[in-house]
Write a structure and sequence with these properties.
Layout: H1 12-18, H2 46-60, E1 65-70, H3 72-83, E2 88-94, H4 109-119, H5 121-130, H6 138-148, H7 152-161, H8 169-176, E3 183-188, H9 195-204, E4 208-213, H10 220-223, H11 225-238
Parallel strand pairs: 1-2, 2-3, 3-4
Length: about 240
């Protein structure tokens, strides 16, 4: 599952690395890319995003799966695993988004949503996501392009209804300790918002491995695809998958 403002396309490097040995399923989250973008805020609450995971797995005939995502997608993957652990073989949680009252992307979600409503998506995105256009690398340009292809109302409601409601790892700890699933927690060393939340998450999960990718930022799978794919393949092989 991709992050806010992304799409299934963001997993291209991983699909190419995995497809000879694994079946890979990726989809556009509600309000993103080719998926529907309902107008009302009630469509963008956590339970709807979590239910979408089950709908996708049912559609492709997968009773159980390795479930993962980046940033917002990692938050949804973790919620799905807590809700339906019997359907999860393992977890891959990249650039965990932090929480509403701590560090990470979730902590600025409400301010980002307000900026979209007041000043428009391009100005808000430059402030909260990609920064100065002239300094963007290839991954940053892809992120910017992806954001601007989405309906602003959908991103605004997703920020308010889903991202801003992400509980902290400390709040989730009693549930996480019972989540005895293999987990890969992977984060870029330069990802200031997700580095500490990812470390905390890896400590809270009973069977988690933390990988910190040197030089990579928030979109770690696109900024360092070789290192990301190596860690992913090693994790899968190490758990007999």
């Amino acid at each position: 599952m991709h992050g806010l403002g992304g799409s299934a396309r963001n997993w291209g490097p991983q699909v190419r690395a995995l497809r000879s040995r694994y079946r890979v399923v990726r989809f556009d989250a509600r309000g993103h890319a080719r998926s529907e973008a309902p107008v009302g805020p009630e469509a963008y609450v956590p339970s709807e995003f979590v239910a979408d995971v089950g709908r996708v797995l049912d559609q492709v005939g997968a009773e159980r799966a390795i479930v993962g995502g980046l940033s917002m997608g990692a938050g949804v993957a973790l919620r799905w695993a807590m809700a339906s652990p019997e359907r999860v073989l393992a977890l891959v949680l990249a650039a965990f988004p932090g929480s509403r009252d701590g560090a990470g992307f979730a902590s600025v979600a409400l301010a980002f949503a307000d900026a979209i409503e007041r000043r428009g998506l391009e100005a808000a995105g430059a402030e909260f996501v990609w920064g100065d256009d002239s300094r963007l690398d290839a991954a940053g340009r892809l992120v910017r392009q992806g954001f601007l292809e989405h309906p602003p109302h959908a991103l605004m409601w997703t920020l308010r209804g889903l991202v801003a409601t992400q509980p902290s790892v400390e709040e989730l700890a009693p549930e996480l300790v019972r989540l005895r699933l293999p987990a890969l927690v992977i984060v870029g060393a330069a990802d200031r918002g997700s580095l500490e939340p990812s470390r905390t998450l890896a400590q809270a999960l009973p069977d988690a491995r933390l990988v910190v990718v040197p030089g990579a930022g928030h979109v770690v799978n696109l900024q360092a695809p070789k290192a990301f794919n190596t860690a992913l393949l090693e994790f899968l092989a190490g758990h007999g998958v």
